[in-house]
């Protein structure tokens, strides 16, 4: 590939989001430090986590150097590619009718896609092209060996995100997220989980559900509660070599600020299945509880507040510990039996 000039950092315009409070930075190079960070359930920018990566050195040098490095490990598997037309201005979001997205998805050869992304750098009025969520352990296993992340279990595989100036609409993940920037700059705009009512999230049955609000140019007449979301928001500006930890369920809008950007991320933590998977329980509650009469809804709200979200020592302290059943700390065998009971009930 032809080696292009390094990117001009002045090409990315400033955003009205830049003055928002910044997410704090910290080190977490030891497993105990990283475990404490995850347990805190607080977003953080992490410094010095992957300074020895070969990919980071290539990304800091130039787009051409990183593309050459990745293409050299290509095993010929097609990669997931997303593309939005020029009129979308890089926004990966809903179309007006909320039924489709502004981007298309397809599988394409890695080398061809890298070459096309590189060829679009510096050109105006062009589509936004990106490789999204590429499982590196399958497509580029040499990358995983050469760029290790020892703070996470070996079965937590990295994924590659590489492309142009993409703006991914506000969404959240059911897993913890560790995102490591290896080329270009990225801005992460984060909202706490409790801001869901102020973010105007789209249909749940068209995953992933996205916010309808453009946070860089919000329509407050149409989305007045978004002012409250912004009041609770935090922002992180990441350079190559920076990582960010995003606890599960935190809403985030991600903007790639340069014409060429690359990031590797890790998702982990959503290990529950079946009736113990929170999202499945949430969907079941929509089916079973939302349309009940007001009095019955009030009853179930009180039951959830008391026994699910309340202090179990207060809600069940009057019951002998051996008789608390599902209201107490269940032994593994009791938990298995309870799961079987619920699974059987959901089959009817």
Structural write-up:
This protein is an alpha+beta fold. It folds into 2 domains: 9-268, Sandwich (Jelly Rolls); 274-346, no CATH class. The protein has 11 helices and 14 strands. The chain has helices at 31-40, 54-61, 63-71, 110-119, 136-139, 141-146, 226-231, 278-289, 294-308, 312-315, 332-346, and strands spanning 25-27, 44-47, 79-84, 91-92, 104-108, 128-135, 159-163, 167-171, 176-183, 186-191, 234-238, 243-246, 251-256, 261-268. Helix 2 (54-61) packs antiparallel against helix 3 (63-71) and helix 3 (63-71) packs antiparallel against helix 4. It is globular, with a radius of gyration of 23 Å. Residues 1-6 have low confidence and may be disordered.
The CATH H-level superfamily of the largest domain is Jelly Rolls
Low-confidence stretches: 1-6
Give the SSE order as H and E letters: EHEHHEEEHEHHEEEEHEEEEHHHH
CATH topology of the largest domain: Jelly Rolls
The total of beta strands comes to 14
| Most strands sheet | 9 strands, mixed
Shape: globular
Q: What's the CATH class label of the largest domain? A: Mainly Beta
Q: How much of the sequence is in beta strands?
A: 15-25%
**Amount of helix:** 25-40%
Reading side by side through the largest sheet, how are the strands ordered? 1-2-12-9-14-7-6-3-5
What's the number of domains?
Answer: 2
* Discrete helix count: 11
The CATH architecture name of the largest domain reads Sandwich
Radius of gyration: 23 Å
Distance between the first and last residues' Cα: 60 Å
């Amino acid at each position: 590939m032809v080696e292009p000039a390094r990117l001009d950092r002045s090409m990315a315009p400033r955003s009205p989001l830049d003055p928002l409070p910044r997410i704090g930075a910290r080190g977490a190079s030891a497993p105990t430090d990283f475990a404490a960070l995850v347990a805190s359930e607080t977003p953080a920018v992490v410094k010095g986590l992957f300074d020895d990566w070969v990919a980071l050195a290539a990304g800091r040098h130039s787009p051409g150097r990183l593309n050459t490095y990745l293409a050299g490990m290509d095993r010929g598997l097609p990669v997931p590619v997303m593309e939005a037309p020029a009129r979308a201005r890089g926004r990966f979001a809903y179309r007006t009718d909320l039924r489709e997205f502004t981007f298309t998805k397809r599988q394409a050869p890695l080398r061809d896609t890298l070459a096309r992304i590189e060829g679009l750098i510096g050109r105006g009025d062009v589509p936004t092209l990106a490789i999204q969520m590429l499982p590196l352990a399958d497509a580029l296993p040499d990358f995983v060996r050469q760029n290790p992340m020892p703070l996470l279990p070996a079965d937590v595989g990295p994924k590659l995100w590489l492309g142009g100036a993409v703006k991914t609409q506000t969404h959240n993940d059911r897993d913890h997220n560790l995102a490591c920037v290896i080329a270009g700059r990225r801005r992460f705009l984060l909202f706490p989980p409790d801001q869901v009512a102020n973010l105007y999230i789209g249909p749940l049955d068209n995953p992933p559900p996205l916010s309808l609000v453009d946070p860089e140019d919000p329509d407050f007449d149409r989305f007045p509660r978004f002012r409250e979301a912004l009041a609770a928001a935090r922002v992180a500006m990441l350079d190559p070599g920076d990582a960010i930890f995003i606890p599960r369920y935190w809403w985030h809008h991600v903007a790639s600020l340069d014409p060429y950007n690359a990031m590797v991320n890790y998702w982990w933590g959503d290990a529950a299945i079946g009736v113990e998977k929170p999202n499945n329980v949430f969907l079941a509650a929509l089916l079973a509880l939302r349309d009940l009469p007001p009095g019955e809804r009030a009853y179930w709200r009180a039951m959830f507040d008391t026994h699910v979200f309340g202090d179990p020592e207060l809600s069940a302290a009057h019951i002998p510990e051996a008789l608390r059943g599902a209201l107490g700390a269940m032994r593994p065998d009791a938990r298995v039996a309870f799961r079987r009971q619920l699974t059987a009930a959901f089959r009817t």
